[in-house]
């Protein structure tokens, strides 16, 4: 693996507001190798999307910067495709045309018409959306729109795939299918991935490293957890695996003990509740997913 393929160094950002400027991120340093799969995890509002947008070139850091393969990132580019937290399809284009737009941008002059069609259909099949090629975004469900957004990004074969809670809005079966597809694609193509997630199991299953962020304002990287699990990874086998469960406990401990949800802290302070570490032995279904409602 090439060290320092993607180098995020000294990144901080301040947003202007009506009152004092709001400092969202501070002193973020992360070196990512080519082909590495990184998950970003942290409570709602800590600055995960902001950091991803800086890497995408959509937002400018106030301090520090991002270097990809020796070149400074200062604008968006097809080498860094983004799956947004909320889908971002062109509403006047069909499912097929939305993917086609991206494919044309990247493969113009490299693939002929037939090859482009085959490639677009291949990527839509991957996310099980081949049945809806002629539909407009308004005619499909939210989860389906998200799947088209994922197909569009995969079809661009970007050097770096930036995914903001890509599977958050999907049902459990589709989510599992897409997680497995993403692992297969990444093993084959070797793209570098940064994915934001609130799902602890998802982070452990997919990642080489999990980057855990502290609560904002002035959020930064709290801990980086290396996931020492062999690939290919099998979700069923790992469910019983001691290493897997140890890693997941480490993430839960960071989120619920070391970086307690700021909203919970505020509520507890208002109620005069004594500060103590929360029990980590809550039922798995509720603890596993740091849901938006809980985190917001
Ligand atoms: N353009 C902006 N102007 C002012 N404040 C902003 C702006 N964009 C983001 N923020 C603030 O920066 C902080 C980080 O926001 P961000 O969207 O990055 O959080 P997040 O970690 O992605 O949250 P979530 O998990 O809910 O998606 C928040 O407090 C947010 O209100
Ligand atoms: Mg976000």
UniProtKB/TrEMBL annotation:
Keyword Nucleotide-binding in record: yes
Domain called ABC transporter: residue spans: 8-240
Membrane topology annotation: Peripheral membrane protein
Keywords, comma-separated and alphabetical: ATP-binding, Cell membrane, Membrane, Nucleotide-binding, Transport
UniProt keyword Membrane present: yes
Region listing for Disordered, in residue ranges: 275-296
Subcellular location(s) of the protein: Cell membrane
Molecular-function annotations in GO: ATP binding
Top-level taxon in the UniProt lineage: Bacteria
Pfam family, one: ABC_tran
NCBIfam families membership: ntrCD
Family: Belongs to the ABC transporter superfamily.
Name of the protein this chain belongs to: ABC transporter ATP-binding protein
Taxonomic source organism: Candidatus Litorirhabdus singularis
Lineage: Bacteria, Pseudomonadati, Pseudomonadota, Gammaproteobacteria, Cellvibrionales
């Amino acid at each position: 693996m090439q060290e320092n393929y993607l180098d995020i160094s000294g990144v901080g950002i301040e947003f202007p507001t009506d009152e004092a400027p709001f400092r969202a991120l501070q002193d973020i340093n992360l070196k990512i190798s080519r082909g590495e799969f990184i998950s970003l995890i942290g409570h709602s509002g800590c600055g995960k999307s902001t950091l991803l947008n800086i890497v995408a070139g959509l937002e400018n850091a106030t301090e520090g910067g991002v270097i990809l393969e020796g070149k400074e990132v200062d604008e968006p580019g097809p080498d860094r495709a983004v799956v947004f937290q909320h889908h971002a399809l062109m509403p006047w284009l069909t499912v097929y045309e939305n993917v086609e737009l991206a494919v044309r941008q990247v493969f113009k002059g490299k693939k002929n018409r037939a090859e482009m069609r085959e490639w677009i259909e291949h990527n839509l099949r991957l996310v099980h959306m081949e049945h809806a090629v002629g539909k407009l975004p308004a005619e499909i469900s939210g989860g389906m729109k998200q799947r088209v957004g994922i197909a569009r990004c995969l079809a661009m074969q970007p050097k770096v795939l930036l995914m903001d809670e890509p599977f958050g809005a999907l049902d459990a079966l589709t989510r599992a299918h897409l997680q497995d597809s993403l692992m297969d694609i990444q093993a084959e193509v070797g793209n570098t991935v940064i994915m934001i997630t609130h799902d602890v199991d998802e982070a452990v299953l997919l990642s080489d490293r999990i980057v855990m962020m502290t609560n904002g304002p002035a959020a930064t990287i709290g801990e980086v957890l290396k996931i020492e699990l062999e690939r290919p990874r099998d979700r069923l086998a790992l469910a019983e695996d001691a290493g897997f469960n140890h890693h997941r406990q480490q993430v839960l401990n960071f989120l619920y003990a070391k970086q307690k949800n700021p909203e919970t802290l505020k509520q507890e302070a208002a109620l005069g509740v004594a500060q103590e570490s929360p029990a980590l032995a809550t039922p798995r279904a509720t603890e596993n997913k740091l849901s938006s409602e809980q985190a917001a």
